[in-house]
């Protein structure tokens, strides 16, 4: 087949395919009028007027089949100018997309050929420009014209799914027609031309459980009552075929993995109707007595269960809780067990699903019941004291071996117990206990003022098994007895002015008593009887546990007496009454008009400073030695670790210069 025949073939092919509207190919044809300066005019296939200057006829669109497999170059079309007289003076020039590489033009004839096999899916059209020029002068004979080469599609691409595989879930027991997942396949061919990209879906594997909509690719359930507990996973193979599914169309497949998700369509069931547990009576409160478990074919929250006790011959003895991680029922002890009192318990237990689906009520009831038998085993137990602690009281003047109380412990196994005192709590051995009857008595005299409470521990030991012991704290309170006399609250001392007036208060004193009477202290003050007849001072009881010391005359003289010792009797009001005589030292001093002390004589000073006669003599000797050596008018002397400042002028002592 020569080029002319190919050209004629392409022209005929284009005319056939362009005869139907909507193909987008436009042709120019020569007008019936003669050639004018305004150029050629014409119209396209849709009737739109077009103008071309000095041009014969041409297409402004060419169609070229993709994937050409012939041995010759693929003919595209032909350009021709009215100026071409066939003498070779006209040169055709082609520019634009692919010009010179994909498309070549015969510069003499205007024939265009494709040099390579083209793929519409890579590029659907090419825009080129053509013009005719004088071969010798290179002068343009025609204006540049644009045209398009469209690559015509053939069915060379199979449909491809967007995923492979697809993953989907659908609840078990779903109704027929329940949507599962939609698959999508894409065909790269031209969807606007023919059926090359018209895809139809079909199911190759997965029947009769599932179906697929041939147009949308929506997969639905096709079988009722699919049970996850019977089969959970399904592999469905879907085919997508182009050419509307006709014979000769290309196809692609994908796999859809469908999992049936669980619904609560199975009730819990105990594996046994009777459970039996053995537990020692010594088990601690809160401990697990046993574990039971009901089986549920469902999973996840659909298998969550609650256990509860619905009947028991030991109310409040046990409770049952649910272990959420294992869905087990854990039986816990809430009250102590005692083999000697009750050796067996019977419980009625119920299990029920937490999340019940109303849709499956007909498959219920979603609960089950079972009986639990708990057998209590005997354990050799230690003695048990009747009380958690004991408090005993004893007077502090109680004689030795006085019984102050008793403890008692019984052995649950009816065995004999003996009693001892834990000596680590009674290091001084103040108390003892009778080994047989638990009587506690004292071994030595007590003193409440020394120790008001004693905390000891008594041990009860099983006679036949010394390893079985119990302990109990015993708190002994020592009761007060009035066995201490009251005394001055402090080491009181005071002074009286030489110019003091009668009935003048010079000091207030208080008292203290280590005893602790229930009603509180009440002290009584008085002047000792032996001093009452020649008293220079009097004692006035203030009725508030204090007393005032008063002068009984208008003046005192240091020359007559510089220090007075006043005996004060203090007694309490308890039984037996206790009293003591306390001495108050009063020094006579020189005072100003306001009663402020100015000076006291040497005797008063030494007494106040607490110096003995020997100390005073030592100080005077130091003064004499210093005066003989230094003849200082003012001397400071320190002897025998006692410091006293004495001042002298011309060897004369002055009351005013002798100060404390």
UniProtKB/TrEMBL annotation:
<dbReference type="GO" id="GO:0045296">
    <property type="term" value="F:cadherin binding"/>
</dbReference>
<keyword id="KW-0325">Glycoprotein</keyword>
<feature type="domain" description="Cadherin">
    <location>
        <begin position="81"/>
        <end position="161"/>
    </location>
</feature>
<dbReference type="GO" id="GO:0044331">
    <property type="term" value="P:cell-cell adhesion mediated by cadherin"/>
</dbReference>
<dbReference type="InterPro" id="IPR002126">
    <property type="entry name" value="Cadherin-like_dom"/>
</dbReference>
<feature type="domain" description="Cadherin">
    <location>
        <begin position="162"/>
        <end position="270"/>
    </location>
</feature>
<keyword id="KW-0812">Transmembrane</keyword>
<dbReference type="GO" id="GO:0000902">
    <property type="term" value="P:cell morphogenesis"/>
</dbReference>
<dbReference type="GO" id="GO:0005912">
    <property type="term" value="C:adherens junction"/>
</dbReference>
<keyword id="KW-0130">Cell adhesion</keyword>
<dbReference type="GO" id="GO:0099560">
    <property type="term" value="P:synaptic membrane adhesion"/>
</dbReference>
<protein>
    <recommendedName>
        <fullName>Cadherin domain-containing protein</fullName>
    </recommendedName>
</protein>
<keyword id="KW-1003">Cell membrane</keyword>
<feature type="domain" description="Cadherin">
    <location>
        <begin position="386"/>
        <end position="488"/>
    </location>
</feature>
<keyword id="KW-0479">Metal-binding</keyword>
<dbReference type="InterPro" id="IPR015919">
    <property type="entry name" value="Cadherin-like_sf"/>
</dbReference>
<keyword id="KW-0732">Signal</keyword>
<keyword id="KW-0677">Repeat</keyword>
<keyword id="KW-0472">Membrane</keyword>
<dbReference type="InterPro" id="IPR039808">
    <property type="entry name" value="Cadherin"/>
</dbReference>
<dbReference type="GO" id="GO:0005509">
    <property type="term" value="F:calcium ion binding"/>
</dbReference>
<feature type="transmembrane region" description="Helical">
    <location>
        <begin position="605"/>
        <end position="627"/>
    </location>
</feature>
<dbReference type="GO" id="GO:0016342">
    <property type="term" value="C:catenin complex"/>
</dbReference>
<dbReference type="GO" id="GO:0007043">
    <property type="term" value="P:cell-cell junction assembly"/>
</dbReference>
<dbReference type="InterPro" id="IPR020894">
    <property type="entry name" value="Cadherin_CS"/>
</dbReference>
<keyword id="KW-0106">Calcium</keyword>
<dbReference type="GO" id="GO:0008013">
    <property type="term" value="F:beta-catenin binding"/>
</dbReference>
<dbReference type="GO" id="GO:0016339">
    <property type="term" value="P:calcium-dependent cell-cell adhesion via plasma membrane cell adhesion molecules"/>
</dbReference>
<dbReference type="GO" id="GO:0016477">
    <property type="term" value="P:cell migration"/>
</dbReference>
<dbReference type="Pfam" id="PF00028">
    <property type="entry name" value="Cadherin"/>
</dbReference>
<feature type="domain" description="Cadherin">
    <location>
        <begin position="488"/>
        <end position="605"/>
    </location>
</feature>
<dbReference type="GO" id="GO:0034332">
    <property type="term" value="P:adherens junction organization"/>
</dbReference>
<feature type="domain" description="Cadherin">
    <location>
        <begin position="271"/>
        <end position="385"/>
    </location>
</feature>
<feature type="signal peptide">
    <location>
        <begin position="1"/>
        <end position="24"/>
    </location>
</feature>
<dbReference type="GO" id="GO:0007156">
    <property type="term" value="P:homophilic cell adhesion via plasma membrane adhesion molecules"/>
</dbReference>
<keyword id="KW-1133">Transmembrane helix</keyword>
